[in-house]
Amino acid sequence: MSSQDEELLELHSRYDNLYKLNQNIGFENQKLQNEIQTLKQTLCSFETENNELNDQIENLKNDLRTQFAISQNLRQENEFFENQIHECKKQIESAASYYNQIIEENDLHISQMQHKIQQNEYLTQENHLYKEQIHSLQEDNEQLAQEVANLQESLNNHDPYTQDGKQLQNSDQNKHVKKQNRKKVKELERLIIKKEQEISQLYSKIEDLKNYNQQMKYQSEKYEQNLSYLYSDYQQIEIERNKLASKIDSIQNSNERFSTLQQQFSNSEKNKNKEFQSMKVQFDQLQMKNLQYQQQIQAINEELTILTQKYSELEELNNQYLQEAENFKDQLLEKDSLTDKLQSQLQQQQFKDIQFQQQIKEFNQQLKELQQHKSDQQAQIAQLLKENQIQANQLSQVKDLQSKELKDTLNQVESLKKERQNLIDLIKIKDDKYMDLEMKQKNSENLIKQIQEERIYLEQAEQYNIKIMQIL
Q: Origin, by domain of life (predicted)?
């Protein structure tokens, strides 16, 4: 009996130890489940942050695409402005060449008009001289006619048949006087004929002057017509100049719009740089959290390894206990002569053993579930690490792509600045050409005024010649 009591006490002690060990394993299992739940929550938060980071990366990609589209539109508008400036430059050059041609023709007409005016002044002076000569010749002709009339009267008064003795005595003298008078009359007649010829020549010269004045009038009308053509061309040039001015204004407005867009683009670039820096900080924080998660996963793996070792040890103890229980059961079957008390104790012990085996089975089931959960957790951890690595690669690619696109954008901004400076230089050149056109316009207006004054002077000279002809 003492040996059986000792064996029962030993069995009770082993049972108590196994029960305590089972409780400790249950506590550790509960603790591990709590840690696994915490890890799941952390994993969910990490997935949420990862999704937010993916959304931010996608938004950043969309913003970069939008910025690239804006830069493309700016480049197209800049090319359109360059084409417009090139066309305006061609139009200005053609207008300038045509305007220079008109100015050269105008200068030629002015020189011709000046030459004609000088000739007209010279002819006017000759006309005055001819008129004075005609007037003097007319006076001489009247004087000669008076002398001829006086001589004729004196000849008529000297009668050759007079009976006056005194006249007879002076007959020779009278003959001599008559001869001299006849000579004078002949000379006066020749002089009158000569003066008449000179007068006819003067009249022919006056007719020539009339014809020349008529020709000058025709040329003046022609010059006036040319001036009207020049004025119409000038008006057309003025219209083209206004069109060019409106185009230059539109280009300046487009330049201002381009400056505004460039400022907006610069501000957007600054904001994107700030967002990129914040994203970089978040990425660093995520990397730190990832390292922490990896450390936690490593600690959990170590704890799982320890629990596995404990499970294997407990399983060995359980097998030993089952073996001992089987041996003890065999011994109990051989000892049928034991007392009822021992049988009841044994039955109670068997009932406890059955309960303990049930607990062992439940514990084994929990350990199997724990192992299965461990394998699932390890698969999730591997998937998480894989996704984390993929996300890190994507972030690195996005970072490289963003840095490359940022460099391209900066280069585009620099090129746009250079193109804007070229536009400003072209506008300055157009302003200088516009000032030259205004100076040429003023010179042309002055020349037109001078030609009009000369035309008025020619009309006055022609009216004066008409009055002289009427007087003659």
A: Eukaryota
- The answer to the question of residue 405 being in a domain is yes
Q: b/e per residue, 77-99, with b = 16+ CB within 10 A?
A: ebeebeeebeebeeebeebeeeb
Q: Specify whether the CB–CB gap between 92 and 244 falls below 8 A.
A: yes
- Neighbour-count burial for 295-310, b at 16+ CB within 10 Å, e otherwise: eebeebeeebeebeee
Are 144 and 191 spatial neighbours (Cβ–Cβ below 8 Å)?
A: yes
Two structure tokens written together for 2:
């003492």
| Dihedral angle, C-alpha 318, 323, 324, 330, nearest 10 ° | 140
- The residue ranges of DSSP E strands in 110-258, in sequence order, are none
Indicate whether 164 belongs to any domain: no
Which DSSP symbol is given to 158?
Answer: S
User: Is 417 or 79 the better-scoring residue by pLDDT?
Assistant: 79
Query: Is residue 209 a part of any domain in this protein?
Result: yes
**CB-CB neighbours of 453 under 10 Å:** 10
Asked if 382 and 41 count as a contact pair (C-beta separation under 8 A), the reply is no
Mean pLDDT (whole number) for 298-302? 63
Tokens of 316: 């060995």
Number of domains in the chain: 1
Checking if the pLDDT of 344 tops 70, the result is: no
Whose CA is closest to 75, among 419, 408, 407? 419
Structure-block tokens of residue 27: 């506590």
State how far Cα 396 lies from the chain centre: 34
Predicted TM-score (pTM) of the model is 0.29
Cα separations (Å) of 370 from 295, 296, 386? 21, 18, 24
pLDDT in tens, 152-194: 676 666 544 344 444 444 556 656 666 776 676 677 667 767 7
Answer whether residue 114 shows pLDDT above 50: yes
Residue 292, domain extent: 2-156+175-471
The residue among 69, 63, 61, 72 whose CA lies nearest residue 400 is 61
How far, in whole angstroms, is CA 68 from its chain's centroid? 15
